[in-house]
Design brief:
Blueprint (H helix, E strand, L loop, with lengths): L13 H9 L9 H14 L16 H14 L3 H37 L9
Length: about 120
Amino acid sequence: MTAPSTLISLRITEEDLQLLDSRIGTDGARSRSDVVRLAIQEFLNGQPLLSEMDSVRIPLGRGDQMRLGHLYELQGITTQEAAQQGLKLFIRQALEREIEETKLLEEAVAKARASTIKREEYQQ
């Protein structure tokens, strides 16, 4: 038995209505109400736990979904955990590249300064 629900009214554009109608029959939605309910549940469940946090939505293709499913089956790593680990790895690699590029630039400047011929009028 389903939980009791409350009737509400909603105004949306014709384009949004067409998009809503196109979702009927997917993900178990049998009507517009089902599509709206699923969208609201997904929105509310996707909210961060704390107000200072943010969330990101990542579209996944079938191959990625399959591989993530296998990863969960084999190691118990959820999609969210995999995404967070990937983000941390990306940030670490980006910072390492930034440090390496800065080091290369500093070395090039030092080499250029060392090869510059000093003139007497500029020496103190």
